[in-house]
Specification:
1 helix; globular; two-stranded antiparallel sheet; 4-stranded antiparallel sheet; 122 residues; mainly beta; Immunoglobulin-like
Length: 122
């Protein structure tokens, strides 16, 4: 994700005592048979996490499926903080490594934050 978090958010946006503990939730939204949710591990105290995790989603109707990605900051004593999100039509994804922009709660594109993701279709 690079240093974008530092540029897009003040240090008070997340936990003010330490760098964020980021994780991502990955959803497939579409027909009920395709609906799925997975979660990465939490990378502690890191403004530039690297998850290097792979998820597989078998789809029956990929034309109607959306890939939703949500980045959150884990917080043991309060509700986890929202970091950013994106929603991509699966039918428009292409094989390979892609730079995916994230959006805030209002749907505005974050200036510097992106996820580097690899897509593969079997």
């Amino acid at each position: 994700m690079g240093d974008g978090w530092r540029l897009d958010f003040s240090h008070t946006h997340f936990d003010s005592y330490s760098p964020p503990d980021f994780y991502t939730k990955v959803y497939i939204i579409g027909v009920p048979a395709d609906a799925a949710k997975k979660k990465t591990t939490t990378i502690e105290d890191d403004w530039a996490p690297v998850w290097d995790e792979e998820f597989t989603f078998p789809l029956t109707v990929p034309e109607l499926a959306l890939l939703r990605i949500e980045v959150r900051d884990y917080d043991s004593s309060e509700k986890d903080d929202f970091g950013g999100q994106t929603c991509l039509p699966v039918s428009e994804l292409r094989t390979g490594i892609r730079s995916i922009p994230l959006y805030d709660k209002k749907g505005e594109k974050l200036k510097s934050v992106k996820l580097l993701m690899r897509f593969q279709f079997v």
